[in-house]
Design brief:
Helix content: 25-40%
Distance between the termini: 28 Å
CATH topology of the largest domain: Vanillyl-alcohol Oxidase, Chain A, domain 3
Number of domains: 3
Bound molecules: flavin-adenine dinucleotide
Radius of gyration: 21 Å
């Protein structure tokens, strides 16, 4: 590998420039998913939009591969590369909340933990990821699902403006009135169009919530009742279905630790005087094996998985989108749930009906507005050998769900070998996305993503 000339870059950026010869390189090159053990030629930890412009120009001028990294959670490993440039936004984490207009502007390297903490101080929130260390950048540009999705829409539906550095190094402020096409593409089209240095979101009144997990035996009837719960309940009820092995937590009897079960993680943002009704609905889903549900600040519900999935584990994911959760699919979850390979391997079903479905399929780049459930099949292991042994398990699981799933899926739950699905992921929006790509990135500088080739 010939080292690119970084001297000028070192002088022109305010953040850090780290090459293999520099101390800190081992840490700087690491990404969340340990499967991707890559060696970039240089990692630029940008301090501001100026550094982003400089780094994009450097990669373009030297013909180097460019990987953009926000929270580093890309399962497909899009936040790193061999021999190229990594643009790490991880130190750009400022947030400004305007409680009057109920909006927040957050820099491109923020995590959802940063964001929720900042907005909670004002009793406000928007849809974000269910793990606090996930980045707002990758999650929002891919779509963005979380506990508030039924009530508030996807994260990208709440994106009202963005500052973007495109491939030619130019800086764009895009809003509904100004470069609206670019904003449209950022709402689900992934990192294809440029580097977002700051995102502006619409916020919603959400302060303390009724939230937490309830575990049940892994039984098709429990999942059928969960399906009914989603059909019948108000959009203020966020409720993820999880299928996996019992975690070693004190509120679950020890005999269930490591045994297959299912669970519902509830996040009720409706009136507090209806908490008991929500608790009663949870009790009706099936025999409760363990429960930890109470009034908590909204940011806390998004930390429940944090300890289970720290950085450095080995992931390989598959995704499905479906209009329904038919009995056939439920049988598949019960069958494969019984052979879940590790406690960290949680299959998660996100309900995305309600507000997500009230946005038109062409209104944002995220096109599957008829889908009501989005599933992440996510075997996660502590060793490389472990994940290699589970690839076939998740491929079989995914194949068994195929008859009940849409052709495309949600890019953020897909791995790198799902590139062939990109067109299907965007349905009729694909043509417009490709035109946008030709306009803003004709040479495909931003290609480490679920790539829309120009
Ligand atoms: C533990 C875990 C939990 C998750 N939970 C959820 C969830 O609850 N809901 C959900 O919808 N998804 C979830 N995901 C999937 C998640 O949305 C994707 O992995 C997403 O890519 C993570 O974004 P990031 O910024 O952390 O990733 P990174 O690896 O930093 O970035 C991934 C890609 O996103 C693009 N990108 C990132 N930041 C920017 C930016 N500022 N400007 C332009 N492009 C950018 C780039 O193409 C980049 O390569 C989860 C993933 C993990 C591993």
């Amino acid at each position: 590998m010939v080292a690119p000339p970084v001297e000028h870059l070192r002088e022109s950026v305010r953040g850090a420039v780290t090459t293999p010869a520099d101390p800190g390189y081992e840490q700087a090159r690491k990404v969340y998913n340990a499967v991707h053990d890559k060696h970039p030629a240089v990692v630029v930890s940008a301090a501001d939009a100026g550094d982003v412009i400089e780094t994009v120009g450097f990669a373009r001028e030297h013909g180097l591969t460019l990987a953009v990294r926000g929270g580093s959670h890309s399962v497909a490993g899009h936040g790193t590369c061999d021999g190229g440039v990594v643009l790490d936004l991880g130190r750009m984490r400022g947030i400004r909340v305007d409680p009057q207009t109920r909006t927040a502007r957050a820099q491109g390297g923020c995590t959802w933990g940063d964001f929720n903490h900042a907005t909670h101080a004002f009793g406000l929130a928007t849809t974000g990821g269910v793990v606090s260390t996930t980045g707002i950048g990758g999650l929002t540009t891919g779509g963005g699902m979380g506990y508030l999705a039924r009530r508030c829409g996807l994260a990208c539906d709440n994106l009202i403006s963005a500052d973007v550095v495109t491939a030619d190094g130019s800086f764009h402020v895009c809003t509904e009135d100004r470069e609206a096409d670019l904003l449209w593409g950022l709402r689900g089209g992934g990192g294809n169009f440029g580097v977002v240095t700051s995102f502006e979101y619409r916020l919603h009144p959400v302060a303390d919530i009724l939230g937490g997990p309830t575990f049940y035996p892994l039984d098709g009837d429990v999942i059928r009742r969960y399906r009914r719960l989603i059909e019948d309940s108000a959009d203020e009820l966020g409720a993820l279905l999880v299928v996996g092995l019992g975690p070693p937590v004190p509120f679950l009897p020890e005999r269930w630790h490591g045994r297959p079960l299912c669970g519902v993680i509830v996040c009720w943002t409706g009136p507090e005087d209806q908490d008991d009704r929500v608790r009663a609905m949870l009790a009706e889903l099936g025999p409760v094996l363990g429960q930890y549900v109470g009034r908590i600040p909204y940011p806390v519900i998004n930390t429940l998985f944090d300890e289970l999935v720290p950085p450095g584990l080995f992931h390989y994911w598959k995704a499905t989108l479906s209009e329904d959760l038919p009995d056939g699919a439920i049988d598949v979850h019960v069958e494969f749930g019984a052979t879940t390979p590790s406690i960290q391997s949680v299959t998660t079903v996100f309900p995305i009906d309600g507000a997500c479905g009230r946005v038109g399929p062409a209104d944002t780049a995220f096109s599957y507005r008829g889908a009501r459930f989005s599933t992440a099949l996510s075997p996660t292991m502590t060793t490389r050998e472990g994940i290699d042994a589970q690839r076939q398990w998740v491929r079989d699981y995914h194949a068994a769900l195929e008859p009940y799933s849409a052709e495309g899926g949600y890019v953020n739950f897909m791995d790198g070998d799902d590139q062939g699905k990109v067109r299907a992921n965007y349905l009729d929006n694909y043509v417009r996305l490709r035109e946008l790509k030709r306009r803003y990135d004709p040479d495909n500088l931003f290609r480490l993503n679920h790539n829309i080739a120009p």
